[in-house]
Amino acid sequence: VLDGKQPICECNSCYQGSDCSNFIPGCAANVDGYVPFLLVQHAASSAVVVAGWHRMSYKFNDHTFISQELERLIRKVHDIVGNAVTDNRFIVFGAGSTQILSAAVYALSADNASSPARVLTSNPYYPLYKMQTELFASVNFEYQGDTSLWKNSSDAGTNMIEFVTSPNNPDGQLNKAVLHGPYAKAIYDRAYYWPHFTPIPAPADEDVMMFTLSKLTGHAGSRFGWAVIKDEAVFQRMTKHIGVTSIGVSRDGQLRALKLLKVVLEREGKEIFEFGYETMKTRWEKLVKALSLSKRFSLQDIEPQFCTFFQKLRQLSPAYAWLKCEREEEKDCYAVHKAANIIGHEGSVFGAEDRYIRLSMIGTQDEYDLLIDRLNKLVSEEVGAK
Ligand code: PMP
């Protein structure tokens, strides 16, 4: 980090010293975060320098809040990756996909309905859907829990808005909507639908799909996400929501996204996705190996599938491990790991039992190595104790 004239080294949490090489003994392996790591090796070509007078106004020259060039690049990235249909679709930008989530809930609910649309999730689910919907609850929509409660609902006439996360956070499954029929609408969160995390069996073609730079290149701090929308009326309502809540998306953020997507598109995406896939696959293999002798812990089961991007059957490389504590008495898997100096995310955060814990596979290499060290220790204690 450059602070005035002094270069300051930003160390990972477990390291200190002027060159960040001193390990802090006993430091916890903190793998509860969402800190992806891609593009670290493209420091120069992905850099952005902005003159002080540049891009100062709310809008672009065409009086929109959206860079047309960035929109073109987004369509191109989806084309070469083959993960989403964008022809004859509208694109909306948001401050991360987080802003898009609430814009989509607003857009899919009606202003004059007799009862609020039910906003629903399927366990285990990404917790922000519930938190955000509850925060913004209105006469138009309300969070009403798990989809299973409403699957056979005879309460026809009330719209249901289902969040479908595919691949899912926390367990990496390629989920599909469970609610169908004239009152069921789905918001597909495709944040992790990129070749480094999952096979791409076919281009996604849902009515409302959301993507984010945070999981494509790892630039979560730039707060840039987008949605691909089929229906013009939904697109208009989402655009209105984003206009009213933040008068569009940071133009600095858009500029940064533009530069990053250009780097992604070098060699038709081969470099970044191959690097990302190899890194994630190696991490998963190490995790599986670390737990292979354990009867105490198990990992989620994900089916390997053919990936149209890599043109091969893909090995697993999910963004998160969804680990289960198998011993009857170990109902608090978070506490079990905390005692071993590993900090994850409790299952109950995702609407599941606390017998589960989510461990992030997308942190820095140091954090990840520390996780594997600590897990190796846990498993050798278990195996040795037999
Ligand atoms: N959806 C899912 C499933 C996520 O895991 C995340 C980030 N953890 C988001 C959306 C939000 O991403 P963004 O940074 O684009 O707001």
Automatic annotation (TrEMBL):
It comes from the Eukaryota. The chain holds residues 62 to 447 of 488 of the full protein. Residues 41-379 form the Alliinase C-terminal domain. Signal peptide: none annotated. Its cofactor is pyridoxal 5'-phosphate. Coiled coil: none annotated. Belongs to the alliinase family. Keywords: Aminotransferase, Pyridoxal phosphate, Transferase. GO terms for molecular function: carbon-sulfur lyase activity; transaminase activity. This is EGF-like, alliinase. One of its GO terms (biological process) is amino acid metabolic process.
